[in-house]
Design goal:
- The longest helix is centred in the middle third of the chain and has 25 residues.
- The protein is about 55% helix and about 15% strand.
- Strand 3 and strand 4 form a beta hairpin.
- With about 200 residues, it is an alpha/beta fold.
- The N and C termini lie close together (about 10 Å).
- It is built from ten helices and seven strands.
- It has a five-stranded parallel β-sheet, with helices on both faces. It has a two-stranded antiparallel ribbon with strand order 3-4.
- The protein has a single domain, classed as P-loop containing nucleotide triphosphate hydrolases (Rossmann fold).
Length: about 200
């Protein structure tokens, strides 16, 4: 079975693209969602987060997201530390999930596929690119963040152009080319792709 990654910087439209792939019956592993769930259920992650970021990282066994976000998005070292705690667990969890699927191919959606090292376990990586200003506006509207908060988060990801060069295929989410057509073309290629 083919293991496909979908990546792109914040606000690029990864979730929208994955929703289109789901219409074709393709299972999608949402790394952001699964990370949030694992941060509240995985004992290793919970104990390490409390040790490194303080007991106030959790309130009544629920992750204190706003507290943690303020810490990690203003300090690269703390963000790197949090990623070092969560990424290995999420990568292993994703691999186990993918191995249980029976579709012709599966998708792992993750913003940090290259940064986390999880690209190594994938056969193909698709990048989603969108104009800078469009990405900022999408995240402001979606998450209710200020422009400054969005820029801080964007600053922690590798440059979009560099990320797209690392990908095997690219979908352009810029309101000029049909996303459905692009996904349909890619789906046909992936259905005929042979795992090396």
């Amino acid at each position: 079975m083919l293991k496909v990654g979908i990546t792109g910087n914040i606000g690029s439209g990864k979730s929208l693209i994955c929703d289109i792939f789901r219409i074709y019956g393709i299972p999608v592993y949402d790394a952001d969602l699964e990370t949030r769930l694992l941060m509240e259920t995985n004992e290793t992650i919970i104990s390490l987060v409390k040790k490194e970021f303080g007991e106030e990282s959790y309130i009544d066994d629920k992750l204190n997201r706003s507290y943690l976000a303020k810490l990690v998005f203003s300090d690269f070292h703390k963000l790197h530390l949090l990623n070092a705690i969560t990424h290995p667990v999420v990568i292993e969890h994703a691999q186990q999930w993918m191995n249980k699927q029976t579709a012709p191919y599966v998708i792992k959606e993750a913003a940090l596929i290259f940064e986390s090292g999880s690209a190594k376990g994938l056969d193909v990586v698709i990048g989603i690119e969108a104009p800078y200003s469009m990405r900022i506006q999408r995240v402001i509207q979606r998450d209710g963040l200020s422009r400054e908060e969005v820029l801080k988060r964007m600053d922690k990801q590798i440059d979009q152009e560099m990320k797209m060069k690392l990908c095997d295929m690219v979908i352009h989410n810029n309101n000029t080319v049909s996303l459905i057509k692009q996904v349909d073309d890619m789906h046909k290629k992936l259905m005929s792709y042979k795992v090396k």
